[in-house]
Amino acid sequence: MSTAFQIIVCGTLVPDPLQTLEPVASPTGPALKNEMMLPAVLDPWASHALYEAADLAKRCPGSKVWLVSLGPKAKLQQVMMIVAQKVPFELIALDGPSSGFTESAEVAAALAEAIQAIPGLDRSRLLLFGGWESASRGAGATLQLVGERLGIVDQFQGVDQLVIKPDGALQILERVEGGSHQVSTCTAPPALLGWATGNLPEPKNNPQVGMVNMRTVMPALQKAKPVKAGAEGVVFNSVALPKQQRETRIVKDLPADAVAREIMEWLKK
After folding, report:
1. Which residue range is the domain that position 104 belongs to?
2. Which of 48, 80, 61, 73 is nearest to 5 (CA)?
3. Could you tell me the pTM of the whole model?
């Protein structure tokens, strides 16, 4: 039996990982130095979720993928010019900050409101995808809060694989401690899946897919709803890059056991 799903992917923009990020204090709170000048990409974890969503939609005829993204409208347009060529989706854009200094609860509230406003949303077919982690809003908190606001109680984090069984049940492979996986079964949607790396490679650019997507991407960006998602009431005492520490000692003919022992003693300190 083939089930048609409504797959909603939550993903934000993050600075390109190859860039050096320097936190600074601004009049409105912590920010990144020259943040608006930094090249942006779709969050790597959210990208995996989007590719898995598109693959599932391809295998289940009648399914549809939405990408709900909160970020500065100008940045969203730049990134979507690239992402739109990867896989088919419909964009729901929210014009707001993408900084990692925003409060997860406020971001989740804005995303949940946008999802609830999708015309024809059917909870019996709803799958909410996103990144297990995030390069800006870490700890996996935002996606979980979105699910709670939507009343989705079946939540799975660290997902590497999703298999749709013949009876429509979802078999989910989740990461657990010790490099192992836990196999879970969800009888039916709605369900939330926070993806790890999955098993799919990054799709190649397809200009034809890009042209189809841009027909809806540009109107979505033009009518992007302004969203206030900051960190009101939160006080940051300081923001700084982690300090680098390097201690080098050159020793000849030291047994491997002794080297390991010294490393363990150093780590305990």
Report:
1. 6-226
2. 61
3. 0.80
